Amino acid sequence: MQGIKAYQDNAVTTQSRGRLIVMLYDGAIKFLKQAIRELEANNYEAKGQYINRALDIINELNAVLDMNAGGEMALNLRKLYLFMIRHLSEANVKRDPQMIRDVIKLMEELNQSWRAISG
After folding, report:
1. How far apart are CA 56 and CA 65, in angstroms?
2. What is the pTM of this model?
3. What pLDDT was estimated at residue 14?
4. What CA–CA distance (Å, rounded) separates 48 from 54?
5. N or C: which end of the chain has fewer CB within 10 A?
6. Spelled out in words, what is the top-level CATH class assigned to the domain 18-118?
């Protein structure tokens, strides 16, 4: 098992910055889709856990934005991330799957752009 963990750790540390961002988006999208499944199954505790995992990723993406070097692009991403955080927090309380889908759509669009950039 430790060999698998070492491989996974090495895979993450050797990825390019763009590829890491794609992996983060992939993870957040996966968690949000799982949140919808749990919501539809009336498993509200698990729904909340998956939304919180996605929120952790979005908060991390927001925290690492380089506002000085990124200029207007970083500012726009920050606005999007803050919108997603508010939207998911509200979706969690309201138990609204469409609000979660709205964020998934935004994340998928951003993810496609990062995929194109990072090759």
Report:
1. 15
2. 0.85
3. 46
4. 10
5. N
6. mainly alpha
Predicted local distance difference test score (pLDDT) of residue 108: 98
Angle of helix 97-118 versus helix 17-40 axis, rounded to 10:
160
Evaluated on CA atoms 9, 5, 7, 11, the torsion sign reads: negative
CB-based contacts of 77: which residues, under 8 Å, 6+ apart? 61, 62, 65, 70, 110
Give the Cβ contact number of residue 36 at 10 Å: 18
Give the contacts of 33 (CB within 8 A, at least 6 positions apart): 104
Which residue stretches of the chain have pLDDT < 50? 4, 6-8, 10-14
8 Å CB contact between 102 and 86: no
